[in-house]
């Protein structure tokens, strides 16, 4: 997959307005501020094609990007307590309705901050992915904030909590690029079959 010519395609605030899939799709989910938009920029090797912010709640819509005939979907983060209940409900509906659409869900990248235990909403998301049978991979983000040893320990702890094998959780960093090549391989596997 050539990521060099990544481009923005479209933004939707209402899941029912999203047109049918025209190509394989990779979507990125996780709590607000976990690093969804950043990991997409890292894949595309672009500084700010996808809008990133240190303030949680940056991505409020479903944003489609395209690279080499594959769609990359940036979703709003869940669980940002500082938002109004109405806003949180809108986002939850948007994410929920998105995954209820009949689409080419080739791969869902579910992001969890490597420093923290999965939240209740992370559990909900992963339970949903398991129940729905959608292909997904877990990427632990911000590994640059821990030593290699601590990162491995955290991966084991989080894997145990989720009932998964540590090897099934990718250790990633959008800062130093750790795990990005592995993520690209997984994306390739699911999108190019
Ligand atoms: P929402 O759009 O609010 O849902 O957030 P998001 O998940 O898209 O997070 P975003 O990519 O905007 O990143 C949030 C903050 O975390 C920014 O300040 C990023 O610079 C920082 N960040 C993201 N990934 C990493 C990483 O791998 N390492 C470090 N050190 N910081 C990161
Ligand atoms: Mg974002």
Rounded radius of gyration (Å):
16 Å
**Number of domains as seen in the coordinates:** 1
CATH architecture: 3-Layer(aba) Sandwich
Q: How much helix is in the residues?
A: 25-40%
Overall average residue pLDDT: 93
Low-confidence spans: pLDDT under 50, at least 5 residues? Answer: none
Annotated CATH homologous superfamily: P-loop containing nucleotide triphosphate hydrolases
Give the termini distance in whole angstroms.
12 Å
Strand order of the largest sheet: 1-3-4-2-5-6-7
Order of helices and strands: EEHEEHEHEHEH
Q: How many helices? A: 5
What does this structure look like?
- The protein has 193 residues and is an alpha/beta fold.
- It has a single domain, classed as P-loop containing nucleotide triphosphate hydrolases (Rossmann fold), CATH 3.40.50.300.
- Helix content is 34%, strand content 21%.
- The protein has five helices and seven strands.
- The protein has a seven-stranded mixed β-sheet, with helices on both faces.
- A hairpin with a 2-residue loop joins strand 3 and strand 4.
- The longest helix is centred in the middle third of the chain and has 16 residues.
- The chain is globular.
- The protein starts with 6 loop residues before the first strand and ends with a helix.
- 37% of the residues are buried.
- The structure holds guanosine-5'-triphosphate and magnesium ion.
Short recap of the structure:
The protein has helices spanning 36-44, 85-100, 120-132, 148-162, 180-192, and strands at 7-12, 25-30, 62-67, 70-74, 105-113, 136-141, 169-171. It has 193 residues and is an alpha/beta fold. The chain has one domain: Rossmann fold (3-Layer(aba) Sandwich).
């Amino acid at each position: 997959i050539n990521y060099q010519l990544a481009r923005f395609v479209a933004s939707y605030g209402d899941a029912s307005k999203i047109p049918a899939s025209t190509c394989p799709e990779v979507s990125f989910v996780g709590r607000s501020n976990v690093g969804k938009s950043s990991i997409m920029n890292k894949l595309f090797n672009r500084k700010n094609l996808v809008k990133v912010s240190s303030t949680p709640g940056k991505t409020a819509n479903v944003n489609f990007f395209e690279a080499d005939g594959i769609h990359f979907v940036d979703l709003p983060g869940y669980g940002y307590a500082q938002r109004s209940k109405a806003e949180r409900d809108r986002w939850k509906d948007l994410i929920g309705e998105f995954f209820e659409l009949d689409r080419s869900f080739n791969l869902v990248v579910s992001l969890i901050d490597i420093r923290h235990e999965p939240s209740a909403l992370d559990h909900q998301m992963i339970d949903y992915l398991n129940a729905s049978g959608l292909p997904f991979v877990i990427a632990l983000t911000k590994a640059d904030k821990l030593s290699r040893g601590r990162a491995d320990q955290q991966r084991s702890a989080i894997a145990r909590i989720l009932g998964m094998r540590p090897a099934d959780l990718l250790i990633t960093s959008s800062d130093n690029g750790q795990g990005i090549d592995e993520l690209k391989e997984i994306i390739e596997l699911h999108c190019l079959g």
